[in-house]
Amino acid sequence: MGTRQPCLLQKTYALDAVEGLVEVSYQITNTGSLPLEAVFASELNLNVGSDQSDRSGWKCGKEKKPSRESWQKEDGGNVTVFSSDGLEVRVVPDHLPLTWAYPLLDAEKGPDGPIRQGYCLLFGLHLDLKPGMKAEARLKVNYRKV
What we know:
This protein is elongated. By secondary structure, it is mainly beta. The chain has strands at 7-16, 21-30, 36-46, 57-60, 63-65, 71-74, 79-82, 87-94, 98-103, 108-110, 113-115, 119-129, 134-145. It is built from no helices and 13 strands. The mean pLDDT is 84. The chain has one domain: Beta-galactosidase, Chain A, domain 5.
Protein backbone atom coordinates (compact mmCIF):
# COMPACT_ATOMS: atom_id res chain seq x y z
CA MET A 1 0.00 0.00 0.00
CA GLY A 2 1.28 3.46 -0.87
CA THR A 3 1.57 6.51 1.35
CA ARG A 4 -1.75 7.95 2.52
CA GLN A 5 -2.07 11.55 1.47
CA PRO A 6 -4.75 13.73 3.06
CA CYS A 7 -6.73 16.06 0.85
CA LEU A 8 -9.93 18.06 1.12
CA LEU A 9 -12.64 17.60 -1.52
CA GLN A 10 -15.50 20.10 -1.54
CA LYS A 11 -18.52 19.55 -3.78
CA THR A 12 -21.17 22.26 -4.22
CA TYR A 13 -24.45 22.10 -6.14
CA ALA A 14 -26.38 25.00 -7.68
CA LEU A 15 -29.85 24.33 -9.13
CA ASP A 16 -31.90 26.41 -11.57
CA ALA A 17 -35.26 24.69 -12.14
CA VAL A 18 -36.44 27.31 -14.67
CA GLU A 19 -33.44 26.69 -16.94
CA GLY A 20 -33.23 22.93 -16.18
CA LEU A 21 -29.65 23.44 -15.03
CA VAL A 22 -27.58 21.68 -12.39
CA GLU A 23 -24.09 23.05 -11.76
CA VAL A 24 -21.64 21.01 -9.71
CA SER A 25 -18.42 22.67 -8.52
CA TYR A 26 -15.42 20.81 -7.11
CA GLN A 27 -12.45 22.10 -5.13
CA ILE A 28 -9.62 19.71 -4.29
CA THR A 29 -6.99 20.92 -1.81
CA ASN A 30 -3.77 19.10 -0.92
CA THR A 31 -3.81 19.34 2.88
CA GLY A 32 -0.86 16.98 3.28
CA SER A 33 2.88 17.57 3.53
CA LEU A 34 3.80 15.77 0.27
CA PRO A 35 2.95 16.51 -3.36
CA LEU A 36 -0.33 14.93 -4.50
CA GLU A 37 -0.44 13.34 -7.93
CA ALA A 38 -3.64 11.57 -8.95
CA VAL A 39 -6.51 11.56 -11.41
CA PHE A 40 -9.79 13.02 -10.13
CA ALA A 41 -12.99 12.12 -11.98
CA SER A 42 -16.68 12.80 -11.56
CA GLU A 43 -19.17 10.18 -12.77
CA LEU A 44 -22.59 10.95 -14.20
CA ASN A 45 -25.03 8.12 -14.99
CA LEU A 46 -27.92 9.04 -17.28
CA ASN A 47 -30.89 6.81 -17.96
CA VAL A 48 -32.73 8.56 -20.78
CA GLY A 49 -35.10 5.67 -21.36
CA SER A 50 -34.70 2.39 -23.11
CA ASP A 51 -34.87 2.42 -26.88
CA GLN A 52 -34.36 -0.58 -29.10
CA SER A 53 -34.39 1.50 -32.31
CA ASP A 54 -31.04 3.21 -31.63
CA ARG A 55 -32.69 6.63 -31.96
CA SER A 56 -31.12 7.60 -28.66
CA GLY A 57 -27.39 8.25 -28.47
CA TRP A 58 -24.69 10.74 -27.64
CA LYS A 59 -22.44 13.36 -29.16
CA CYS A 60 -19.01 14.53 -28.12
CA GLY A 61 -18.86 18.14 -29.32
CA LYS A 62 -20.47 17.86 -32.78
CA GLU A 63 -19.32 14.29 -33.41
CA LYS A 64 -22.14 11.76 -33.03
CA LYS A 65 -21.10 8.51 -31.38
CA PRO A 66 -22.77 5.11 -31.84
CA SER A 67 -25.06 4.49 -28.86
CA ARG A 68 -23.40 1.20 -27.90
CA GLU A 69 -19.81 2.35 -28.36
CA SER A 70 -17.45 3.20 -25.49
CA TRP A 71 -14.94 5.99 -26.07
CA GLN A 72 -12.50 8.31 -24.35
CA LYS A 73 -11.10 11.64 -25.36
CA GLU A 74 -8.75 14.33 -24.11
CA ASP A 75 -10.07 17.88 -24.42
CA GLY A 76 -13.38 16.29 -25.43
CA GLY A 77 -15.51 19.29 -24.59
CA ASN A 78 -19.29 19.14 -24.34
CA VAL A 79 -21.16 15.84 -24.31
CA THR A 80 -24.84 15.58 -25.25
CA VAL A 81 -27.02 12.56 -24.52
CA PHE A 82 -30.41 12.36 -26.22
CA SER A 83 -33.40 10.06 -26.00
CA SER A 84 -35.80 8.86 -28.65
CA ASP A 85 -38.63 10.88 -27.08
CA GLY A 86 -36.83 14.24 -27.31
CA LEU A 87 -35.02 14.62 -23.98
CA GLU A 88 -31.57 16.18 -24.37
CA VAL A 89 -29.00 16.31 -21.58
CA ARG A 90 -26.01 18.56 -22.32
CA VAL A 91 -22.94 18.34 -20.07
CA VAL A 92 -20.35 21.12 -20.23
CA PRO A 93 -17.13 20.40 -18.30
CA ASP A 94 -14.91 23.23 -17.08
CA HIS A 95 -11.30 22.29 -16.12
CA LEU A 96 -12.14 18.60 -16.63
CA PRO A 97 -10.28 17.81 -19.88
CA LEU A 98 -10.50 14.00 -19.77
CA THR A 99 -13.73 12.33 -20.91
CA TRP A 100 -14.65 8.65 -20.74
CA ALA A 101 -18.03 7.40 -21.90
CA TYR A 102 -19.65 4.01 -22.09
CA PRO A 103 -23.18 2.59 -22.30
CA LEU A 104 -24.45 1.04 -19.10
CA LEU A 105 -25.03 -2.69 -19.25
CA ASP A 106 -28.12 -4.08 -20.90
CA ALA A 107 -29.46 -5.66 -17.73
CA GLU A 108 -32.88 -6.97 -18.70
CA LYS A 109 -34.44 -8.81 -21.60
CA GLY A 110 -37.28 -7.11 -23.46
CA PRO A 111 -39.55 -8.50 -26.17
CA ASP A 112 -37.09 -7.36 -28.86
CA GLY A 113 -33.84 -8.07 -27.02
CA PRO A 114 -31.86 -6.45 -24.17
CA ILE A 115 -33.13 -3.15 -22.78
CA ARG A 116 -30.45 -0.46 -22.64
CA GLN A 117 -30.14 0.99 -19.16
CA GLY A 118 -28.50 4.32 -20.03
CA TYR A 119 -25.11 5.98 -20.36
CA CYS A 120 -22.18 6.59 -18.01
CA LEU A 121 -19.96 9.64 -18.41
CA LEU A 122 -16.74 10.34 -16.51
CA PHE A 123 -15.06 13.73 -16.60
CA GLY A 124 -11.62 14.00 -15.05
CA LEU A 125 -8.37 15.86 -14.64
CA HIS A 126 -4.83 15.01 -13.71
CA LEU A 127 -3.88 16.51 -10.34
CA ASP A 128 -0.32 17.51 -9.53
CA LEU A 129 -0.66 19.60 -6.37
CA LYS A 130 2.09 20.74 -4.03
CA PRO A 131 1.13 20.97 -0.33
CA GLY A 132 -1.45 23.71 0.23
CA MET A 133 -2.31 24.02 -3.48
CA LYS A 134 -5.85 23.54 -4.79
CA ALA A 135 -7.55 22.71 -8.08
CA GLU A 136 -11.07 23.67 -9.13
CA ALA A 137 -13.41 22.14 -11.69
CA ARG A 138 -17.06 22.44 -12.68
CA LEU A 139 -19.76 20.52 -14.54
CA LYS A 140 -22.85 22.21 -15.96
CA VAL A 141 -25.68 19.81 -16.78
CA ASN A 142 -28.65 21.14 -18.75
CA TYR A 143 -31.85 19.14 -19.27
CA ARG A 144 -34.28 20.16 -22.01
CA LYS A 145 -37.01 18.80 -24.23
CA VAL A 146 -36.34 19.28 -27.96
